[in-house]
Amino acid sequence: MKLLNEKSKTGSSSFNVRLLDIQTNIPEELQRVDLDLPELSEVEVVRHYTNLSKSNFGVDNGPYPLGSCTMKYNPKINEVAAKIPEFNIHPLSQHNKGALEIIYQLQQYLCEITGIHAFSTQPAAGAHGELTGIMIMKAWFEKRGEKRTKVIVPDSSHGTNPASVSLCGFEPVHVITSQSGGIDLGDLRQKMSKDVVGIMITNPNTLGIFDDNILEITKTVHDYGGLCYLDGANMNAMLGVVKPGDFGIDIIHLNLHKTFSTPHGGGGPGSGPLGVTKELEPFLPNPRIIKENEELKFEQSNESIGKVHSFYGNFGILLRAYSYIRAIGTSGLRNVAENAVLNANYMKEKLKGHYHLPYDRICQHEFVIDDSLMPNGITTNDIAKRLMDFGFHPPTIYFPLIVKGAMLIEPTETESKENLDAFIEAMKVIKEEAEHNPEKLTKAPLNAPIGRIDIVHAARKPKLRWHSK
């Protein structure tokens, strides 16, 4: 598709830019004389953006099996709730009791779902929740007068985990994954010491495996006085089935834009509420919304790490999550987890005879296959590009890093068996093409608006703006 600048025709402009008849303080050398805007009629502009929108892919268009990201369909009732005029309020108006009641109730729901004592809705994303959690761990040990410097991070973790650790001035120490796909207990015990702040766990982990040794892992860390942090990005597999507080978690963030069906991606607002045990509650960001004698109040703690977000988080996202939880209820939340796990295991079993499955065991909400058995030099990247021709968004590729040529697939609970079967069939066809017509894969996508690009060149020398010839 041509850019608007390339479609421009002199004399076709549907607008006029008039010179300002007021004085400005803009220095003359910074004032634009020629805006160099494309000249197009209104209908051409409308058609351009309409056609462009049709080329975009989202979960409303089709399956989006992006492992470890839970890109599931968002019920439109959530959007209806977010559009209620009375809730379309300026942040300074969030002091009204209706909005505060929503936030307070949502905090209580998250406590009940996770088995964790208290939540703050301030963090604006998962990584923001992580950073807030590590800051609380740091404040906890500073109060105790202990100077600890290391945080244990499994080698299967999300990349934001070691980044959050480093941002807070700690050293990330990696522990390896065992042959069964969980944390290697021997390696963990060897690396534990009184210098360790704690551990950042993802459970189920990024291989889609629930760690059989989770109770032993948290006990090992607690025995050294450390804290256990859970990256809650994969909570979609545990809703109503397992409470992280029951297996020894001290701190957890949740991705409302994953598990609780609010918009995800596109650079929009996210939400990563942080929950802690009773002992750590005083360190949560100020102010906290609490209720005493049925009266909503703001609580300010002298031990708080301070504010991490303006006001109380992204209210529109909180409202969507609240609506989702209220709409489906306790049994609905459990159904989410059970169906997500069922869908993933169904797909895994159907594909494992055609693709290599590095961890052949019951998975949770996602699973990993790789390209090690692909003929004719076909790679994971080729498979991902070819999937686009079948109308599917590719799964997460080349992650987790501990599996070479990984494809991390998460069908989520919102996809029907018909959609799962269609994806499975596409993957089977791709395997056959790799054997008999590999050129189809190496040149894919064949039907997309843009064909195969040089990804290395695009990453190193991106074209970020249009230049006239």
Structural class category = alpha/beta
Number of domains as seen in the coordinates: 3
Relevant CATH superfamily of the largest domain: Type I PLP-dependent aspartate aminotransferase-like (Major domain)
Series of H and E elements: HHHHEHEHEHEHEEEEEHEHEEHHH
**Mean pLDDT rating:** 93
Question: What structural keywords apply?
Answer:
469 residues, alpha/beta, Aspartate Aminotransferase, domain 2, 3 domains, seven-stranded mixed sheet, three-stranded antiparallel sheet, 13 helices, globular
Can you give me a brief rundown of this structure?
With 469 residues, this protein is α/β, with parallel strands linked by helices. Helices cover 34% and strands 11% of the residues. β11 and β12 form a beta hairpin.
What would you note in describing this structure?
It is a single chain. The protein contains 13 helices and twelve strands. With 469 residues, it is of the alpha/beta class. The chain folds into three domains: 51 residues, no CATH class; 252 residues, 3-Layer(aba) Sandwich (Aspartate Aminotransferase, domain 2); 124 residues, Aspartate Aminotransferase, domain 1 (Alpha-Beta Complex), CATH 3.90.1150.
